[in-house]
């Protein structure tokens, strides 16, 4: 009876399954990490190391985590884990942004549904509800981030609404007060009439909006240019509601203007035969068509527009203002008439031009979008409902020349989605020039590393041209502007003793102290409360988050200032990166970070924006239940985060396929390292060439991984590791060495060398994968080194000896790799044509040059090609030999192996006496096995 040799073959043994079961295993692993207090162990083992600090940009505490959170937090976690394993102390303190309009808006919605008026609720009661709302979502988001496998000091995060944080934020504000850069001014700012507050640029979105356009006559009443006498200057605007705020007109000094006399008009036209209209020559034809003018004649060229004064078109309704023509470099001939009407209270450029020329800046629109009672004719009308009445009124008083509609990009509130207006209102600002903040910030940008580098140009351009920092918001849920204003002079009070009392109260009670105490409490005996106005506005939340470096990095001994890295989405060039830079440069003279990394946004698989209404918003919870968090982590690492990232079911499936290939690599290693003993280990000098070549490749990979991680290039890390596992290991080294692992006797040099290399591969791959595949790497580590109190995440990347690098050997084996590809191709043809079954049925002849033949000398070619035999010939190759076009000088004649099939290794060899008997190698291995078992 023929013996079954299965028990003598060293088949892989591992409890590391092919099917991952991540949705079930990951929560169990999270519980184990909690039990072993892994974060505490990490901090203990890192003491004394150089710190690497990635300062967390605080997410907003108002909802479940979404895919944008996943991208952001996983990137941060991969960076922190990799730096930790590269020998740093990478302490990560997560934070939350807790103040601001979105939370306040939610509480107001609750009041509205209950029929309550927010303004009738005591301020601190309202603030308490906002705080409770934020607290709830902080807990929800914290659990979501932990489910992703993100390591951090979750028990001690920083919160912008903590009393100590609020006190530091106020202290930072008071620094600007004391150095004179904080001031109160009346400017036209972007305003939400829905939310009744000013908005920062970072809170604004641009969407298509259809506006009413009007062409309006402003009759000339005085001029030094004869050409303009008896004419009307024509303006064009997309904001009819700003006409009540008009106080001047603007023209471009480089623009050619003409006066056109109307000769004939179409039916229904508002133009009048005989009237003279002044406008830019370049836009004359478009105006003529819009106004329904059938013919006109240019009667004069305007040469001296300066000094010209016009009458407001509604002067007989009380708008008795004279409009001067003022030169402005922003006037163009892109569209309109070449003249621009100036409403200083409703536009940034209008405001600046008006102030420069002594033009009145009127208050015409209240915070709710209604015209003030003093506004003639339109008092009490909402600005977004005035287009019809404005057209009717202008027409009735002879001011309207034409009207139309235009769809254009227009600013909207990111929260309410409602269109915004420019509105003049008293606001608090930080000057960009008073203490040189702009220059300091530009210098800091030049000294900061940016990933990608384009972020540097973007932020630089924003700082170069930005106006003074608008700080105030007309809301209550936030850090108050803790300033007193002298009612007589309008100047803010600058007194360190008052500041100390303010800070002491906020440290004890939080910012509620500002709202809950009267002015006298803070002013003390040195000042009369009757002489001062207590500021009622709150700070822009970007100032809150811009000071996180002060109350997080500087207040904790386990962190450092400045941070090594800030990381957020590209929108934070105008948000957190921006405000942190300005705040820090204003108070410390430099950026609070040494490097800035930005990532793109999440799109669906069709490159469209994700939204619930579109039905394409796949959330993290959906993925946790089906695939597990490691698939999300792998997707983040595999993608190019510098661009917008696509995400969806198809991409998830492809990522899961890649994951399986990586997992199977780990499984092969674990299975074939079963019972590996140190006594088996071989020095590289004792190994066959193939194994030394793998050590060389491992050394190259070590350098590749470390260099890519150092510059946050995780996509390159993924590609390198994936290709290394799928091509160089699975399809080459593992494929070749399976026979040695399974069939060689345990003490053979080849098997010991292979197992030594596998051990080195295991330690490198498991630790290299650990920052990305946090759960899978831990599972693979515990599978080999089970210890309830140990973890792969407590390890460092293994030190790979530089002596393993052997470029000459690599060059040789790169050529052998090509030769092998031709042999494999020839055998594929034989299998396809059913001339052989397995490759072990073949014994090919390989035709090579003498140089290539020498490369294969002393190598086990049968093992290299996974055949039963092989021969090399330097003779000319037969015409029908197999070749590959991209590999020169190699041809293969496949031949069937002759002899009998070994009953243990299945090689077909002449030395096997009969089918099922053993070859010499297997006979020796079985004898050793039987002796050991006896």
Automatic annotation (TrEMBL):
Cofactor note: Binds 1 zinc ion per subunit.
Originating gene: ileS
GO MF, any single term: aminoacyl-tRNA deacylase activity
Functional note: Catalyzes the attachment of isoleucine to tRNA(Ile). As IleRS can inadvertently accommodate and process structurally similar amino acids such as valine, to avoid such errors it has two additional distinct tRNA(Ile)-dependent editing activities. One activity is designated as 'pretransfer' editing and involves the hydrolysis of activated Val-AMP. The other activity is designated 'posttransfer' editing and involves deacylation of mischarged Val-tRNA(Ile).
Signal peptide start and end residues: none
GO cellular component: cytosol
Recorded superkingdom: Bacteria
Positions of short motif 'KMSKS' region: 609-613
InterPro entries: aa-tRNA-synth_I_CS, aa-tRNA-synth_Ia, Anticodon_Ile_BEm, Ile-tRNA-ligase, Ile-tRNA-ligase_type1, Ile-tRNA_ligase, M/V/L/I-tRNA-synth_anticd-bd, Rossmann-like_a/b/a_fold
Domain named Aminoacyl-tRNA synthetase class Ia: residues: 29-647
Motif ('HIGH' region): 59-69
Transmembrane spans: none
Subcellular location: Cytoplasm
Family per record: Belongs to the class-I aminoacyl-tRNA synthetase family. IleS type 1 subfamily.
The protein's name in its UniProt record: Isoleucine--tRNA ligase
CDD domains: Anticodon_Ia_Ile_BEm
GO-annotated biological processes: isoleucyl-tRNA aminoacylation
Cofactor requirement: Zn(2+)
UniProt: L-isoleucyl-5'-AMP binding residues: 568
Subunit structure: Monomer.
Domain Methionyl/Valyl/Leucyl/Isoleucyl-tRNA synthetase anticodon-binding: 691-843
Binding site for Zn(2+): 902, 905, 919, 922
Catalytic reaction annotation: tRNA(Ile) + L-isoleucine + ATP = L-isoleucyl-tRNA(Ile) + AMP + diphosphate
PANTHER family assigned to the protein according to its UniProt record, in alphabetical order: ISOLEUCINE--TRNA LIGASE, MITOCHONDRIAL (PTHR42765:SF1), SOLEUCYL-TRNA SYNTHETASE (PTHR42765)
PROSITE patterns per the UniProt record, alphabetical: AA_TRNA_LIGASE_I
EC number: 6.1.1.5
Source organism (scientific name): Minwuia thermotolerans
Classification via Gene3D superfamilies: 1.10.730.20, HUPs, Ile-tRNA synthetase CP2 domain-like, Valyl/Leucyl/Isoleucyl-tRNA synthetase, editing domain
């Amino acid at each position: 009876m023929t013996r079954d040799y299965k028990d003598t073959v060293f088949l892989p043994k591992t409890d590391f399954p092919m099917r991952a079961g991540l949705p079930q295993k990951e929560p169990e692993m999270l519980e184990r990490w909690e039990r072993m207090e892994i974060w505490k162990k990490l901090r203990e083992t890192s003491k004394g190391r150089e710190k690497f600090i990635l300062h967390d940009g605080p997410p907003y505490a108002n909802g479940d985590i979404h895919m944008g959170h996943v991208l952001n937090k996983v990137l941060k976690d991969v960076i922190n884990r990799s730096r930790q394993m590269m020998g740093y102390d990478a302490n990560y303190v997560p934070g939350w942004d807790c103040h601001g309009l979105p939370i306040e808006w939610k509480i107001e919605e609750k009041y509205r549904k209950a029929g309550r008026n927010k303004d009738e609720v005591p301020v601190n009661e309202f603030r308490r509800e906002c705080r409770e709302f934020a607290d709830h979502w902080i807990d929800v988001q914290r659990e979501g981030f932990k489910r992703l496998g993100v390591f951090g000091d979750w028990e001690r995060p920083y919160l912008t609404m903590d009393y100590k944080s609020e006190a530091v934020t106020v202290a930072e504000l008071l620094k600007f007060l004391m150095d004179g850069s904080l001031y109160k001014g009346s400017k036209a700012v972007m305003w939400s009439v829905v939310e009744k507050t000013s908005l920062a640029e970072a809170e604004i979105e641009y969407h298509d909006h259809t506006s009413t356009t009007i062409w309006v006559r402003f009759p000339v009443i005085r001029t030094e240019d004869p050409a303009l006498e008896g004419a009307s200057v024509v303006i064009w605007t997309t904001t009819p509601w700003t006409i009540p705020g008009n106080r001047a007109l603007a023209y471009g000094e480089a623009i050619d203007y003409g006066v056109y006399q109307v000769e004939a008009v179409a039916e229904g036209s508002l133009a009048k035969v005989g009237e003279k209209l002044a406008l830019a020559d370049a836009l004359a034809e478009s105006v003529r068509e819009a106004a329904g003018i059938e013919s006109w004649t240019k009667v004069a060229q305007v040469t001296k527009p300066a000094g010209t004064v016009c009458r407001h078109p509604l002067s007989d309704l009380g708008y008795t203002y004279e409009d001067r023509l003022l030169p402005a470099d922003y006037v163009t001939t892109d569209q309109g008439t070449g003249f621009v009407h100036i409403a200083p209270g409703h536009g940034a450029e209008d405001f600046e031009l008006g102030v420069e020329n002594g033009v009145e800046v009127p208050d015409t629109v209240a915070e709710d979008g209604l015209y003030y009672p003093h506004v003639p004719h339109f008092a009490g009308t909402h600005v977004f409902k005035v287009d019809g009445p404005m057209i009717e009124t202008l027409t009735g008083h002879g001011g309207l020349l034409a009207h139309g509609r235009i769809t254009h990009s227009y600013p909207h509130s990111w929260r309410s989605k409602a269109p915004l207006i420019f509105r003049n209102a008293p606001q608090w600002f930080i000057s960009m020039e008073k203490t040189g903040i702009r220059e300091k910030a530009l210098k800091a940008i030049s000294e900061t590393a940016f990933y990608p580098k384009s972020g540097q140009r973007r932020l630089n351009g924003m700082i170069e041209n930005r106006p003074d920092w608008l700080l105030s918001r007309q809301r209550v849920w936030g850090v108050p502007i803790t300033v007193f204003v002298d009612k007589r002079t309008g100047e803010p009070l600058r007194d360190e003793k008052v500041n100390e009392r303010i800070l002491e109260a906020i440290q004890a009670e939080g910012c509620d102290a500002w709202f809950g105490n009267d002015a006298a409490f803070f002013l003390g005996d040195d000042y009369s409360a009757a002489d001062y106005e207590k500021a009622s506005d709150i700070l822009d939340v970007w100032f809150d988050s811009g000071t996180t470096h002060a109350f997080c990095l500087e207040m904790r001994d386990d962190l450092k200032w400045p941070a090594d890295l800030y990381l957020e989405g590209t929108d934070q060039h105008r948000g957190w990166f921006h405000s942190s830079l300005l705040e820090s440069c204003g108070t410390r003279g430099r950026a609070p970070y040494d490097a800035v990394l930005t990532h793109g946004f999440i799109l669906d698989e069709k490159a469209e924006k994700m939204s619930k209404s579109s039905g394409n918003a796949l959330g993290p919870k959906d993925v946790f239940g089906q695939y597990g968090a490691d698939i999300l982590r792998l997707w983040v690492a595999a993608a190019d985060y510098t661009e917008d990232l696509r995400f969806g079911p198809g991409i998830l499936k492809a990522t899961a396929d890649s994951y399986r290939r990586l997992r199977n690599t780990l499984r092969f290693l674990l299975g074939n390292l079963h019972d590996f003993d140190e006594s088996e280990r071989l020095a590289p000098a004792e190994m066959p060439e193939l194994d030394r070549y793998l050590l060389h490749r491992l050394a190259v990979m070590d350098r590749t991984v470390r260099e890519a991680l150092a510059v946050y290039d995780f996509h390159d890390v993924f590609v390198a590791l994936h290709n290394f596992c799928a091509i160089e290991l699975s399809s080459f080294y593992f494929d070749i060495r399976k026979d040695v692992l399974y069939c060689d006797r345990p003490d053979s040099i080849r098997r010991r060398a292979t197992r030594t290399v596998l051990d080195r591969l295991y330690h490198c791959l498991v630790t290299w994968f650990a920052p990305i595949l946090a759960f899978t790497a831990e599972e693979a580590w515990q599978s080999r080194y089970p210890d309830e109190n140990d973890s792969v995440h407590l390890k460092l990347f293994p030190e790979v000896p530089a002596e393993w690098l052997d470029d000459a050997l690599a060059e040789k084996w790169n050529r052998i790799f090509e030769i092998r590809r031709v042999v494999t191709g020839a055998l594929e043809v034989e299998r396809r044509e059913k001339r052989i079954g397995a490759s072990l049925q073949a014994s090919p002849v390989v035709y090579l040059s003498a140089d290539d033949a020498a490369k294969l000398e002393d190598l086990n070619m049968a093992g290299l090609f996974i055949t039963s035999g092989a021969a090399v010939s330097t003779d000319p190759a037969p015409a029908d030999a197999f070749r590959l076009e991209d590999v020169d000088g190699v041809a293969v004649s496949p031949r069937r192996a002759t002899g009998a099939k070994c009953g243990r290794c299945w090689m077909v060899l002449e030395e096997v006496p009969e089918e099922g008997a053993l070859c010499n190698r297997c006979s020796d291995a079985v004898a050793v096995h039987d002796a050991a078992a006896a």
